[in-house]
Amino acid sequence: MVISADSGNNGAARRPAVTLQDVADRAGVSRSAASFALTNRGRVSEATRQRVKDAAAELGYRPNRAARNLRTQRTGVIGLCLPPGSTIREYYMDLAFGAVDAAREEGLLVAIISGEYPASTLLDFDGLLVLDPQLDDRMLKAAEKTGIPVVTGERPLQYSTAVRGTVHGNHEQTFPMLLDHLETQGAKIPALIAPVGSTDWASSARAAYFAWCEARGLEPRIYETSFPGTAEEVSALATELVDDRSIDAIISMTDGTVIEVLTAAMAAGREPGRDLLIAGAADSSILQYTEPQITSLDLRPRDFGAACVRLLRRVIHEEPTDPIVEVSPVNLVVRASTAKPLDRGDS
């Protein structure tokens, strides 16, 4: 039996590839309008954009990435730069998945960069997404030398000519939501276990905590770890803090480390959710399965990662004169560890 090169597995004629013109015809628009709609460029109404995308989905249209990149002199690849020690954190992994999902929708590929990366090879990327940039961040300095546009996830602590956009959680405004909640539940002396202020997230939350304490005439009780902070560091601090019965609430900032506070509290005979309020500043899935479940700020990492990628694509194509800044929402998730007012017994 002879099977034609144009046949499928069953000898049937292979369907011709769907073209951009086919999509344009289905949507009832010009070829250029279809191209603008699919690449989120140009002045195309949202209704037209959606109609074109629906037509592309119905027809199974797949853009020729190689041809498009050849025309635009771009690689179609962006770099996602993770801070040191981040690959074991659920927050960063969720953020990375959100970024990858958004990149796929935008027709981009993502290369995840963790640790040192030669500056010369940054030319392989159309742009970089730098998460939690540090003081004297090496990736920002490398991007400055190569002229690669950067979007940062959280604000850079120093000016960089490479940064053309930023998405941040506005932590000066959102972190006090957690502090106010603890106060409402009766906390008078909340302690904070926080990383050093080497990132915008850490420094902004710490500043918000100091300002909150000052407004109430309270002495700040802040205990410092490295960034992003290890379970061992938090465990040692938590063991010390839970023995101090004057402390009625403890917040641990780094995602997952609040488990160490819960463990130390129970070992010391404290009753989390009753005589001690416990909360995290970066939610993770495990906090839903502890006993009691633990209150936390939800930084919405998947949405955050997706917003960063969409902004990076925008600055790559628009080349804005001034950096674009966007704010990503943060939610307070109240669980059993702080759901009820403190029980102070006979005190």
Automatic annotation (TrEMBL):
InterPro entries: HTH_LacI (IPR000843), LacI/GalR-like_sensor (IPR046335), Lambda_DNA-bd_dom_sf (IPR010982), Peripla_BP_I (IPR028082). Gene3D superfamilies: 3.40.50.2300, lambda repressor-like DNA-binding domains. Keywords: DNA-binding, Transcription, Transcription regulation. GO terms for molecular function: DNA-binding transcription factor activity; transcription cis-regulatory region binding. Pfam families: LacI, Peripla_BP_3. This is LacI family transcriptional regulator. It comes from Gulosibacter chungangensis. Residues 18-72 form the HTH lacI-type domain. The keyword Repressor does not apply.
